[in-house]
Design a protein that fits this description.
Mean pLDDT: 93
Structural class: alpha/beta
Distance between the termini: 44 Å
Radius of gyration: 21 Å
CATH superfamily: Aldolase class I
CATH architecture: Alpha-Beta Barrel
Length: 338
């Protein structure tokens, strides 16, 4: 025990501010609310819900159930939903030909969700990988991703999504110049109010594995015999930090309204740098692998699932996030009183 006589002045005891719930709440530096959450959701072309084995508690939802989920998001106070498609393998090809289908599952889901809950924002992934038979995010030729040819396809896809009623386009492909191309196309089509949240700093990460199962992404292929393609050639090297700042600066200059760091928890240092450098709305994606680790460990009794979920989400706020894209959104919103 410390002796009070050792201190020539009243002792500074930080624990005084922690001794009761009311005082902890009074001095809390960061607050998490349902308004900080974007619900990450996978929609499929069939009926009902289909559990995702690698993500306990997450289901692929039909268009009808996605519309019901939008109503639930409104009730919980969740401001937006990010939707991703699961496409039948028979409808995939080398160039993602169905990505811009105005009658495809994404267009139908957007229309149904906006009809059911127009107050809830809908964010669409602008990327080809759910639609390609090789699982990559772009058009491949001789073992290389073609930047400009991919952007042409992305613009077609993004315009389809915006015309269906999507509020936020979220290009996740990491092609150079795609944000500017999307912004110019939106302006030319009279869709200037459609927002862009760029996956500005998207890393080539092992944490995406469960998502690829969720959307039925093809096993990464070559695109050409004997010419392997690696996502490291277009997604960022996990070793790099300064490069993320350059990527974000380019996307903001091209017209991005918001920027995103992906994955989330392993890259909170990047979130902090981006938020402090640009003072622009900065988001992070708590990706499928992050969700799966918490859910699986919780199911095995190794951690308290609810506490780990809420602690992880608070970490994003502490790092400087304006909001978090997460599969935990409805659970967390209920915990927060939504």
């Amino acid at each position: 025990m410390r002796s009070a006589s050792l201190a020539p002045y009243p002792a500074l005891r930080l624990r005084r501010l922690r001794q009761a719930d009311w005082t902890r709440r009074l001095v809390r530096e960061n607050v998490l609310s349902p308004s900080d959450l974007i619900w990450s959701m996978v929609v499929h072309e069939g009926e009902g819900r289909v559990p995702v084995a690698a993500m306990p508690g997450v289901d692929r939802l039909s268009v009808k159930l996605a519309a019901e989920a939008a109503v639930e998001a409104r009730r919980l106070g969740i401001p937006a939903i990010a939707i991703f498609p699961q496409i039948d393998g028979s409808r995939k090809d080398a160039v993602g030909g169905n990505a811009a289908d105005p009658d495809g599952v994404i267009a139908r889901a957007v229309r149904a969700m906006k009809d059911a809950a127009p107050e809830v924002g809908i964010m669409c992934d602008v990327a080809l990988d759910p639609f390609t038979d090789h699982g990559h995010d772009g058009v491949i030729e001789d073992g290389r991703i073609l930047n400009e040819a991919t952007i042409e396809r992305l613009v077609e896809q993004g315009l389809m999504q915006a015309k269906a009623g999507c509020d936020i386009l979220a290009p996740s492909d990491m092609m150079d110049g795609r944000v500017g191309a999307l912004r110019r196309a939106l302006e030319a089509e009279g869709l200037a109010d459609t927002m862009i949240m760029s996956y500005a700093a998207k890393y080539a990460s092992a944490f995406y594995g469960p998502y690829r199962e969720a959307i039925g992404s093809a096993k990464l292929g070559t695109g050409a015999p004997g010419n392997p393609v690696d996502k490291m050639t277009y997604q960022m090297d996990p070793a790099n930090s300064d490069e993320a700042i350059r990527e974000v600066a380019l996307d903001l200059a091209e017209g991005a309204d918001m920027v995103m760091v992906k994955p989330g928890l392993p890259y909170l240092d990047i979130v902090r740098r981006v938020a402090e450098t640009f003072s622009a709305p900065t988001f992070a994606f708590q990706v499928s692998g992050e969700y799966a680790m918490i859910a699986a460990a919780g199911a095995n009794g190794w951690i308290d699932r609810d506490r780990a979920m809420m602690e992880s989400l608070m970490a994003f706020k502490r790092a400087g996030c304006a909001g978090i894209i997460t599969y935990f959104a409805p659970e967390a919103a209920r915990k927060l009183g939504g």
